[in-house]
Amino acid sequence: AQTVTQSQPEMSVQEAETVTLSCTYDTSENNYYLFWYKQPPSRQMILVIRQEAYKQQNATENRFSVNFQKAAKSFSLKISDSQLGDTAMYFCAFSLGTSYGKLTFGQGTILTVHP
Amino acid sequence: NAGVMQNPRHLVRRRGQEARLRCSPMKGHSHVYWYRQLPEEGLKFMVYLQKENIIDESGMPKERFSAEFPKEGPSILRIQQVVRGDSAAYFCASSTGTSGPETQYFGPGTRLLVL
What we know:
The structure holds two protein chains of two kinds.
Chain A: E1 3-5, E2 10-14, E3 19-21, E4 24-26, E5 32-39, E6 46-52, E7 60-61, E8 64-69, E9 74-79, E10 88-96, E11 104-105, E12 109-114
Parallel strand pairs in A: 2-12
Antiparallel strand pairs in A: 1-4, 3-9, 5-6, 5-10, 7-8, 8-9, 10-11, 10-12
Chain B: E1 5-7, E2 10-13, E3 19-24, E4 31-37, E5 43-50, E6 53-56, E7 65-68, E8 75-79, E9 88-95, E10 105-106, E11 110-114
Parallel strand pairs in B: 2-11
Antiparallel strand pairs in B: 1-3, 3-8, 4-5, 4-9, 5-6, 7-8, 9-10, 9-11
């Protein structure tokens, strides 16, 4: 079975600064996908970024980028130029590269951006 | 293009009653996933359905819980004889399912409170 671990229950950052959220996972499979989802106070789940394990290049989406270390089974999220609207719970998630994508989530990290 | 719709957004039930949660996937999506989020925890996979078929229900409690996705109409998650431990947020997600683990788009969730 796959597991996802987020070791930082809470993080905080000043507006406009950079913050990195950690995620590690465990799997014996070689074909899989990794995701970061954001859950703001509204509790809507919003996809932030997605990484295919077979791709060497780290995914980026505007101010969001990942550091994917496949050998170390690490998948951290970097948020640059943090904004107040980034305040949310962030979940790391894993999906096998099978015909459908059942997600396994980590415990989440609460990120607070301070003005 | 409307997103994933869930209703009701909030549901209060007394112990022993039935809860019915509805999910309408995004237009063009024929794959539906249900997840449960207990307080202060990450989301846990419950069941994966395609139209008229349950594909994977490995995360569904064996008793009292059932799910369906009929040919016409929304997907339904049904909880019979609810207990206080069923209080949680229930999220539905949908995907096209055309190839590989397509990105899942989440609905706003249904918050179930069992008194």
